[in-house]
Amino acid sequence: MTEMDRADFEIREAQPGDLSALLQLYQQLQPNDAEMGDDLARDRFNEILAHPYMTVLLAIADHLPIATITLIIIPNLTRGGAPYGLIESVVTDAAHRQRGYAGALIRHGFSHAWEMDCYKVMLLSGSKNPATLDFYRNCGFVQDKTGFQIRRPSTL
């Protein structure tokens, strides 16, 4: 039985009432992040929910969000105008890891991206953990490009 055939969870888009559970999941993803105030968190989440090309997907088990990914569809002027997707903020609650939830979310994200006519989906990972990198490869990602990033200097 594949993860997508499992009946013990469902995949759905995030809704306004999911903010608290999402923040708890994100705390596990980035435990050293500064806590944002309730008003800012609600404002940011409302912006995300209103964004036409951004989807926060949740795996729900026992009525609780236990894993999430964010899929952003980016309009494009190359590749014949075909957009591309970016997956970010992949996290599964520590008590539910290695059960296929994140993989199912990622594959669901792929399906959504293909429906939106994306020509590719990208993901960057800061992890050096071989198991994490193997997980992404097993989802279908190919590690054949070099990623770069720059972060805002802390002096600003």
Task: Describe the protein in words.
This protein has about 160 residues and is α+β, with helices and mostly antiparallel strands. It has one domain: Aminopeptidase (3-Layer(aba) Sandwich). Helix content is about 30%, strand content about 20%. The protein is built from four helices and five strands. Strands 1-2-3-4-5 form a five-stranded mixed β-sheet, with helices on both faces. Strand 2 and strand 3 form a beta hairpin. It is globular and about 40 Å long. The N terminus is likely disordered.
Number of DSSP helical runs = 4
Structure class: alpha+beta
Per CATH, the architecture is 3-Layer(aba) Sandwich
Strand content: 15-25%
Share in helix: 25-40%
The beta-strand count equals 5
Q: What's the CATH class, please? A: Alpha Beta
CATH topology: Aminopeptidase
Number of domains: 1
Distance linking N and C termini: 51 Å
The residue ranges in which pLDDT falls below 50 over 5 or more consecutive positions are 1-5
Mean pLDDT: 92
Report on the biggest sheet: 5 strands, mixed
The CATH homologous superfamily is termed Gcn5-related N-acetyltransferase (GNAT)
List the helices and strands in order.
Answer: EHHEEEHEH
Radius of gyration of CA atoms, rounded to a whole number: 16 Å
The coarse overall form would be globular
Neighbour order of strands in the largest sheet: 1-2-3-4-5
